[in-house]
Amino acid sequence: MNDRTIGPVLINGDEFAPAEATVSIFDIGFQRGYGCFEAMRTYNGCVFRLGHHLDRLEQSAGNLRIGLPPREELEAWGVRVGGGGDGVLRMYVTGGPDPQHLGTDNVVIVYLEPVPDVPSSVRLDLIDAPWHADGRMSELTGAKTLSYGPNLAATLGAKSRGYDDAALVGQDDVVLEGPTFSLGWVTDGVLYTPSLETSILASITRQATIETAALLGIATEIGRFRSERLLEADEVFVMSTVKEVLPVTAVGEVAYAPGPVTQRLRKGFLALVEVECP
Ligand SMILES: Cc1ncc(COP(=O)(O)O)c(C=O)c1O
């Protein structure tokens, strides 16, 4: 094994040691970023919301016209690999090596990665994302594809300017999401988060946080919001499988203290995890 995985790697259900787990250089997942993936958190060997992640993977593969193994098989692989403890369960589906028959001979790769160090808060650079679908529909609307180049470049660009990551803004100055996380903020005790109609990823953590807010009696408004609404907020936070619910202490030049509502949502989210993954 190496320090990138906990346990073996499954490729189409067969176990490989990480160093032996390989994909063809002709696979269009590698050559063109044609494929899809999921990242799920495991807590004590339980995959949090495995069913929701597999729903999203099926939607992604459907959008890309990539065939998937039967759902029960994917589920069994997720449970088998995810049983390895606390980690990030990665499930990748490539488009296969045959450019004449895209989406056939695809490869499903599943492995568990150690949970990375997550900081206690993040500082975000507010940037334009002209590449984001931003409300426009396409073949790939709702898909979590392997084409993450623009997202990674946005993160690296923000880091080069002294931030931890980026907050993406679309045309008409509408707040979207981060390159690998969703955004939420609190103004006068109300939780605001961009709607899925802005073509943001249907984040499973965002959905769980909205449910948490309802349980805690925190009013939620979901919609299209201009960046001034974010900048005027009392508290800002990010949501993702890896980051869970994490306070934001700066968006561009504007500073925020990690606030009480974010803290309640974070605790509430972790309580929900404990109920579903006891
Ligand atoms: C673009 C984008 N938005 C939001 C998220 C958060 O989604 P989830 O909560 O399902 O991890 C991700 C996760 O990788 C993402 O890539």
Give me some keywords for this one.
single chain, 278 residues, alpha+beta, D-amino Acid Aminotransferase, Chain A, domain 1, D-amino Acid Aminotransferase, Chain A, domain 2, eight-stranded mixed sheet, six-stranded antiparallel sheet, 7 helices, 14 strands, binds pyridoxal-5'-phosphate
Amount of beta strand: 25-35%
Radius of gyration: 19 Å
The number of E-state strands comes to: 14
How many H/I helices?
7
What general form does the structure show?
A: globular
CATH class of the largest domain: Alpha Beta
SS-based class: alpha+beta
Overall pLDDT, averaged?
Answer: 95
Specify the helix fraction band: 25-40%
Q: Compute the number of structural domains.
A: 2
CATH superfamily grouping of the largest domain: D-amino Acid Aminotransferase, subunit A, domain 2
What bound compounds does this protein have? pyridoxal-5'-phosphate
- State the order of secondary-structure elements, H for helix, E for strand: EEHEEHHEEEHEEEHEHEEEH
Q: Note the gap between the termini.
A: 28 Å
Instruction: Write down the CATH topology of the largest domain.
Output: D-amino Acid Aminotransferase, Chain A, domain 2
Report the sheet with the most strands, covering strand number, pairing sense and barrel closure: 8 strands, mixed
